[in-house]
Amino acid sequence: QIEHYHRYLFARSLCVGKDVLDVASGEGYGSAQIAQVARSVIGVEYSESTVRSAAANFPRENLRYLQGDARSLPLPDACVDVVASFETIEHFDGQEAFVSEVRRVLRPDGMFVVSTPDRDVYSAAHMAPNEYHVRELSRSEFQRQIGRAHV
C-alpha cells in the first residue's frame, strides 16, 4: 500500500491543472490525492461495489468514479491529459487492448504514467507466483508493449 501512495504522490506532480484518468482506481485514495491538484479526475474500476465505496469515501467536486474495464474504457476519445495506472496490466489478458484504449482516450500531447512489477525481479524462479497476476512482463516486454501503441 505504501508503494501505491508513493506512485500517486509522484503522479500528482504531473497532474496539476490537468484532466486525469486513473485506471484501476481501486479504493479511490489515489484518485482523491490527484484530485487535490488536477482540474478533474475520473477513476475507473472494474468492481461496481468498489466504485460505490470509493465515491462514498472520497467525495470531491472534481472527482467521479465509473465502473469499467481497462480494455474498453467508458470514455470518449481524446478526453484526458494524463492516464495513470499503477500495477494494473499484469492482472488481465488483452494487454494490447488496454494500451490501445489509453492511447484512444489521451489528448494529442497526453501522458501515460504507468507501473507494473518487473517479472524478472518480482517473480524470480525461487518466488511463489502471484495468483492474481495473469501475465507479468519483463522490462523489455513492457517497453515493447507500450512502444507498440506509440503512447
Explain what the structure shows.
By secondary structure, the chain is of the alpha/beta class. The protein is built from six helices and five strands. It has helices spanning 2-12, 29-35, 48-57, 95-105, 119-122, 139-148; strands spanning 19-23, 40-45, 63-67, 80-86, 106-115. It has a five-stranded parallel sheet. Helix 3 links the parallel strand 2 and strand 3. Helix 1 (2-12) runs parallel beside helix 2 (29-35). The longest helix is centred in the first third of the chain and has 11 residues, at 2-12. The chain is globular.
Radius of gyration equals: 15 Å
Gap between N and C termini, in Å?
A: 27 Å
- Roughly what percent helix? 25-40%
The largest pleated sheet is described as: 5 strands, parallel
Strand content: 15-25%
Number of helices: 6
Shape: globular
Strand order of the largest sheet: 3-2-1-4-5
**What class do helices, strands and sheet pairing give?**
alpha/beta
- Give the integer mean of the pLDDT values: 83
Order of helices and strands: HEHEHEEHEHH
Could you give the count of β-strands? 5
Sequence stretches where pLDDT stays below 50 over 5 or more residues: none
Summary?
The protein is an alpha/beta fold and about 150 residues long. Helix content is about 35%, strand content about 20%. Helix 1 runs parallel beside helix 2.
Helix and strand topology:
Blueprint: H1 2-12, E1 19-23, H2 29-35, E2 40-45, H3 48-57, E3 63-67, E4 80-86, H4 95-105, E5 106-115, H5 119-122, H6 139-148
Parallel strand pairs: 1-2, 1-4, 2-3, 4-5
Helix pairs in contact: 1-2
